[in-house]
């Protein structure tokens, strides 16, 4: 723990030294994100948009630094260090710089750039540029492979001209030995290069995946739901495309293309102006392949995403499809899409085949034209027959990579569009775009206020909330009620900023919600959705996600407080019971509801928001929740939506919504009162609707 504190303290000092005082005091005041380890440090710096690298420490590498750095030695506390001319300095306890004493092993976090509002529109290229460390070995290995690749044609030439032409078989063993040596170097350098490329592509793909996932998590919910699931999946697959391209044959072909220059220079040295032939053929190769590629690309399947979408829909709605008995409609729709999918893929595959055949024919044609032109030079005795044979062999070293690169052109196009998509995605706004660093006061129940809040999910939709103005006192238990789709869930989500209003605002303890660090706010507030999702894992894993440090006993207590005693009993009182079998949840939606409620109660937060907490649950669960509510009264602000009369009756305040507007906000009206006929009371459920 003390190591963690040291790291946190050093990070605060680093932020101060970088001039990021607001960020430093945010971290100083943040008591929630304990323990503060290297993972927390990584997330924090990303959140504050600092560009950084973590490397093995060596004093020489400090020459690259322009900002103070964080030195994390293996066996001693982290320190802020900096380069001053030729010397390294560490920040002492009194905030004074002094010479660095420990120069032993450890890691160094180098800050490359400070947060900027400028959006990086070339995020993909920027990420790729970070991999420069790998370019050098790939370059040298490719050069070695290209030079040793000359051996076979040159040795063949020597055999023709010296052994056969010169009648001196004694040089043959030397030539054979030289050829064997060159081939073994060629093979080994190619093997090592393949390993380096696989390593680079995997690291690059991993970095892209991490960035994409981090970005998805930090985007506003409204943007995420507007874009749709299939788009998110396709974004996550971008990384896979890069992995396949870089480590596959297309990547190898592309890397080899510049090295064809070595073969061209050798042809020029061996045969003089004969090099013009392969050069002109390469130009012709390029134009022909450009045309055929265009022809192939014009047939790229356009239905793939619709087809994938309908498969996802079918998988999601299997129960409804089966129970409705109307399989026919789905079947017909699926068959139609499947037929079209196959037709488009067939045309595309046919054209890709044509592409590959044309590329192959162009390679053969280049070799043939070189042979026919070269024969005249041999007959003129301008070059030896061995030189002509060597030139023809070298032609394959030029057309091979070109053919590979051209035949993989659809993969290159795919990666190009993936890069563009990635760049666009990285410029989308996130919840961290503005500096939101205030932390909620976690020591007491908060007071909430909605001020003229208006919220639409899309520009052409009716507002889900319209001009909502209502105050909620600290520690109040508030029931939000009203007909379906009147905006109850939206109001709960707006209270913790998960959906953002277009007009009006929400305050917590008098401070606009937009000032709070969204992550810290939601880590503190407890929200239980109406439909709970379970994650593959045990009962304990599922409850613990809201508070990873909770003990098993705390999990069980939270489950009991949520009314889940019967569920726990059914699971043999085993908190480590697996909830999934063959990828499917073993629990019903109602049983999942207990887990969702337990997650919220486990946090012991002073702000609890529950969306239909006991819908369809048994009477015991309701009694338990009433008891839990009674305990929370006064010291926790609770907002819940419900249609249950008993739950509503115990509330301190009721907010009645209709079509997104407040029709009543105040104490729960007494149903037995003489004016119970009035409009407010008539909205209240008159009897227990559940259980
Ligand atoms: N993610 C969303 N995208 C688009 N529209 C939405 C979204 N969520 C809710 N809505 C719309 O906003 C309106 C209010 O929905 P909301 O879920 O807040 O109502 P509710 O009172 O909680 O409904 P219910 O009682 O059925 O849960 C509805 O018309 C709904 O269709």
From TrEMBL:
Residues 666-691 are annotated as: Disordered. GO terms for molecular function: ABC-type oligopeptide transporter activity; ATP binding; ATP hydrolysis activity. PROSITE patterns: ABC_TM1F, ABC_TRANSPORTER_2. The keyword Membrane applies. GO terms for cellular component: plasma membrane. Residues 141-414 form the ABC transmembrane type-1 domain. It is found in: Cell membrane. The keyword Nucleotide-binding applies. The chain crosses the membrane at residues 138-160, 172-192, 244-264, 270-288, 353-379. Pfam families: ABC_membrane, ABC_tran. PANTHER family: ATP-BINDING CASSETTE SUB-FAMILY B MEMBER 10, MITOCHONDRIAL, ATP-DEPENDENT PERMEASE MDL1, MITOCHONDRIAL. This is ATP-binding cassette domain-containing protein.
């Amino acid at each position: 723990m003390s190591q963690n504190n040291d790291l946190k303290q050093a990070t605060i000092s680093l932020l101060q030294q970088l001039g990021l005082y607001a960020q430093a005091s945010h971290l100083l005041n943040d008591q929630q994100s304990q323990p503060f380890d290297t993972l927390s440090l990584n997330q924090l710096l990303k959140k504050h948009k600092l560009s950084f690298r973590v490397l093995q420490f060596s004093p020489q590498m400090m020459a690259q630094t322009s900002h103070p750095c964080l030195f994390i030695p293996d066996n001693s506390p982290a320190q802020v260090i900096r380069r001053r001319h030729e010397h390294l300095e560490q920040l002492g306890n009194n905030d004074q710089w002094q010479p660095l004493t420990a120069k032993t092993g450890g890691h160094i976090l180098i800050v490359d750039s400070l947060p900027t509002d400028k959006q990086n529109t070339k995020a993909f290229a920027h990420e790729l540029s970070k991999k420069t460390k790998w370019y050098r070995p790939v370059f040298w290995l490719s050069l070695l492979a290209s030079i040793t690749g000359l051996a076979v044609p040159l040795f063949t030439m020597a055999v023709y001209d010296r052994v056969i032409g010169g009648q001196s078989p004694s040089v043959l063993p030397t030539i054979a030995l030289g050829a064997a040596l060159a081939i073994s170097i060629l093979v080994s350098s190619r093997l090592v290069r393949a390993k380096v490329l696989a390593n680079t592509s995997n690291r690059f793909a991993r970095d892209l995946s991490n960035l994409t996932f981090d970005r998805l998590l930090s985007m506003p919910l409204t943007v995420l739901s507007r874009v749709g699931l299939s788009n998110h999946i396709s974004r996550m697959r971008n990384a896979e495309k890069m992995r396949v391209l870089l480590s596959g044959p297309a990547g190898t072909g592309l890397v080899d293309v510049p090295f064809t220059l070595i073969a061209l220079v050798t042809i020029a040295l061996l045969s003089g102006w004969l090099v013009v032939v392969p050069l002109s053929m390469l130009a012709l190769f390029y134009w022909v392949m450009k045309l055929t590629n265009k022809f192939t690309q014009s047939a790229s399947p356009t239905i793939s995403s619709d087809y994938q979408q309908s498969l996802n829909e079918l998988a999601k709605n299997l129960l409804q499809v089966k129970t409705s008995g109307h399989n026919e409609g789905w079947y017909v729709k699926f068959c139609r899409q499947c037929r079209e999918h196959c037709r488009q893929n067939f045309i595309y595959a046919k054209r890709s085949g044509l592409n590959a055949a044309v590329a192959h024919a162009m390679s053969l044609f280049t070799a043939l034209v070189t042979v026919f032109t070269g024969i005249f030079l041999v007959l003129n005795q301008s070059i030896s027959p061995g030189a002509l044979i060597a030139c023809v062999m070298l032609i394959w070293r030029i057309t091979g990579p070109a053919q590979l690169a051209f035949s993989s052109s659809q993969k290159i196009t795919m990666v190009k569009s993936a890069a563009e998509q990635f760049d666009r995605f990285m410029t989308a706004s996130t919840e961290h775009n503005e500096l939101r660093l205030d932390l909620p006061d976690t020591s007491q129940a908060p007071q909430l206020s909605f001020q003229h809040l208006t919220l639409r999910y899309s520009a052409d939709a009716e507002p889900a909330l319209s001009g909502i103005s209502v105050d909620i006192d600290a520690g109040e238990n508030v029931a939000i009620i009203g007909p379906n789709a009147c905006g109850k869930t939206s109001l709960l989500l707006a209270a913790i900023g998960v959906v953002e209003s277009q007009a009006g605002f929400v305050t917590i303890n008098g401070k606009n919600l937009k000032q709070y660090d969204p992550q810290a706010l939601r880590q503190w507030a407890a929200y239980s959705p109406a439909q709970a999702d379970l994650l593959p894992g045990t009962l304990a894993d599922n409850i613990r996600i809201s508070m990873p440090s909770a003990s098993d006993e705390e999990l069980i207590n939270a489950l009991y407080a949520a009314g889940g005693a019967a569920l726990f009993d059914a699971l043999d009182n085993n908190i480590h019971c697996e909830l999934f079998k063959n990828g499917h949840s073993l629990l019903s939606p109602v049983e999942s509801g207990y887990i969702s409620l337990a997650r919220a109660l486990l946090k012991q937060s002073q702000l609890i928001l529950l969306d239909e907490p006991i819908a369809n649950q048994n009477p015991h669960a309701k009694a338990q929740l009433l008891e839990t509510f009674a305990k929370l009264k006064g010291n926790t602000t609770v907002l819940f939506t419900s249609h249950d009369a008993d739950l509503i009756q115990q509330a301190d305040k009721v907010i009645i919504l209709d079509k997104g507007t407040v029709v009543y906000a105040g104490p729960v009206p007494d149903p037995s009162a003489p004016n119970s006929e009035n409009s407010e009371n008539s909205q209240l459920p008159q009897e227990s609707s559940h259980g």
